[in-house]
Design a protein that fits this description.
Elements lengths: L11 H7 L4 H19 L5 E6 L6 H17 L4 E5 L28 H19 L3 E4 L13 E6 L7 H7 L5 E5 L6 H12 L3 E4 L2 E4 L6 E5 L2 E2 L5 E2 L4 H12 L8 E4 L11 H15 L1 H6 E7 L25 H14 L1
Parallel strand pairs: 1-2, 1-12, 3-4, 4-5, 5-8, 8-11, 11-12
Antiparallel strand pairs: 6-7, 9-10
Helix pairs in contact: 3-4, 5-6, 8-10
């Protein structure tokens, strides 16, 4: 057993020189960063809606999807900030299956990491250029963050990564909103410990360098449900869960207490249509407690053009090849409903 070293990949600096971001797009992205920070810090009472496909598997359909969000953002600007999910790498529970456009720019062909690095950069640049909406992505591999760090306005750390030291340290060097999900066990204290670590400065090794970070005051929690010892999904979006998280935040010295509720994954048991009910319950809980209202700053929704999911090779345009998603019409109505309810 051994590693087979296939090819030396370009550094983030190489890729960014090859595909530079214009000053105009850089300014748009920075303005969006500040809008996210203002919500997480409580300086804005707008509500964050992070919405989009489970995985960004096709450049054209993803850009088509995000373009449809533009009018909704214009209509709801006073109440909502919409951040499209453009997730370019996908964690797999068993290690098998499609791992995202980073690994396979063409899901039906063999992995090609060099082409994948180019593909994720081009995709995020196209989304920002065509829509003006900078996006969210999941930081599955901390060492890859800087390939996209000048493009992302929001970063999520997944349930399987949130206990990892390198993920926590890397978030401590970001200046954008970064959500730390509860682990699959559901332990809130692990999630809050990750936020605490990310909000502090550190010195560590990153891509062959000794680096120092100042800490990220906009690191916060994401509730995504849990899995018990029998493998059964356990939701954690109910009023009592939010109340408990408020109390636990109150016992810790953390900056900018904030929570995003992920309406899919173990919260919905991957029954994607349940996201509509779950989001509305969360919004209802906010009306019953000022503490919960001040803590819950947004929701995360998995949504694409066509509802449900398909297998790789299904060739249904705009239909997820990973977890099932809400379709466009349901998603559009839900976002407008959120604007009416916040």
């Amino acid at each position: 057993m051994s590693f087979e070293f296939i090819s030396k990949l370009p550094t983030p600096a190489d890729i960014r020189r090859q595909f530079p971001l214009s000053e105009e797009l850089t300014a748009k992205k920075r303005a969006r960063d500040q809008e996210v920070r203002d919500i997480l810090s409580g300086n804005s009472d707008r509500f964050l809606v992070i919405v989009g496909p489970c995985s960004a598997d096709n450049e054209d359909s993803v850009c088509d999807y995000v373009s449809r969000l533009v009018k909704i953002q214009e209509d709801t600007r006073d109440k909502l900030l919409i951040v499209p999910r453009v997730y370019t790498n996908k964690p797999r529970t068993t290690g098998e299956g499609y791992k995202g456009i980073l690994h396979q720019p063409n899901p039906e062909k063999a992995p090609d990491l060099f082409e994948g690095l180019l593909a994720i950069r081009k995709l995020h640049m196209r989304v920002l250029r065509e829509t003006g909406l900078s996006a969210a992505d999941e930081m599955l591999y901390p060492e890859n963050y800087r390939y996209l760090s000048d493009l992302l306005s929001y970063v999520a750390v997944g349930a399987r990564s949130v206990e990892n030291q390198q993920h926590r340290l890397t978030v401590s060097g970001m200046d954008v909103g970064a959500g730390m999900k509860n682990p699959t066990s559901g332990d809130f204290s692990v999630m809050l410990n990750s936020v605490l670590a990310a909000q502090h400065g550190h010195t560590f090794i990153f891509r062959g360098w000794e680096v120092h970070t100042d800490g990220n005051p906009y690191a916060h929690t994401i509730l995504r449900g849990a899995v018990n010892k029998h493998g059964q999904s356990q939701p954690n979006y109910h009023y009592e869960d939010l109340r408990l998280l408020c109390d636990m935040y109150g016992k810790r010295d953390l900056k900018n207490p904030a929570c995003i509720v992920d309406a899919n994954h173990s919260n919905s048991n991957k029954l994607y249509k349940e996201q509509i009910r779950i989001v509305k319950e969360v919004l209802h809980s906010r009306t019953h407690s000022l503490d919960i209202r001040n803590l819950v700053k947004g929701v995360m929704i998995e949504s694409y053009i066509e509802p449900g999911s398909q297998k790789v090779g299904g060739h249904i345009y705009g239909c997820s090849i990973t977890d099932p998603c809400l379709g466009w019409e349901e998603s559009k109505q839900l976002i407008y409903d959120i604007a009416d309810l916040v």
